[in-house]
Amino acid sequence: MILAQLLRTVGCGAVGSALFALMPPVAAHHLGLGAAGFGAMMGCIGMGAVAAGLFLDRVRAWCGLDRLVASACVCFALVMVVTAHVHVAAVVFPALILAGGAWMALMATFNTATQASAPPWVRSRAAALHALSALGSFATGSAVWGAASEIAGVPAALTVAALLMAGNVTLIRWFPLRMGTPTEVTPIAHWRDLLISNPPLPDDGPVAVEIHYQVRPGSAAAFLPAVRQLRASKRQDGAIFWQVYRDLSEPNRFVERFIVGSWADYLRQRARTTIADQETETRVLAHLEGGAIKALRHYIVAE
Q1: Does residue 188 lie within any of the structural domains?
Q2: With contact defined as beta carbons under 8 Å apart, do 5 and 106 qualify?
Q3: Confidence (pTM)
Q4: Phi/psi of residue 186, each to 5°?
Q5: Are 87 and 171 contained in the same domain?
Q6: Of residues 280, 289, 294, 290, the one with CA closest to residue 227
Q7: Are residues 54 and 130 in the same domain?
Q8: Do 214 and 278 form a contact (C-beta atoms < 8 A)?
């Protein structure tokens, strides 16, 4: 989910940077306003961004994430076309106000969706990755569009960028945006006690964990999809390997096995359990005999 939002950020940042990178030649040559014109153009974008920030939450709640981003992409693309082919400041300046609002809608929505999808223990890392995706793609895109304008001219470069920005709308199909629900990001104390008589040192490992399940007869077909939903959360929380096995001698007996790098990593994984993880485990237990796991075993690599 977070990866999809970061990819959308990179796509819009790299293409949208064309407008900002090419505004100086537009101001100097197309509008004939020089440095003052460039400052005025940046001021228009800033005005639009501030105005959009006042209403963005209400607009996002009304139309949804993907519809808002799609509308902002199309609006920004149209402004790039106007900036490329219209040489009248009275037309370009109001268009840039719309561009500022669209840019604020894009970047703020991506940022909000990324942070809201990350649990507290990794939220700062998600915010850093978003900043890297946004600023890194913006810097790289600016250099690319500057070089493209030297080869094909400013109008052609902005037109191509506008087409690509509008094309970002198609990413909705493969990389939809969504906010994380409170259950997905709210941590909760692990509900299964950890009974280890001689716990290893924090750096000892790798550690293998086995959870043995005795499934009720006839429930295996429903149990497997439920237990496989645990894979994503275990891998997200630090597991470097995860798999579920069926006992060949006892068809209704299954073993979930995952590996973490150290004992400290395993303890951190347990501390990162969210309400959604607990709900998933509850659905798994519903298919077991007695409604409980058969055994929980921990192994550490033999030196």
Answers
A1: no
A2: no
A3: 0.76
A4: -90, 115
A5: yes
A6: 280
A7: yes
A8: no
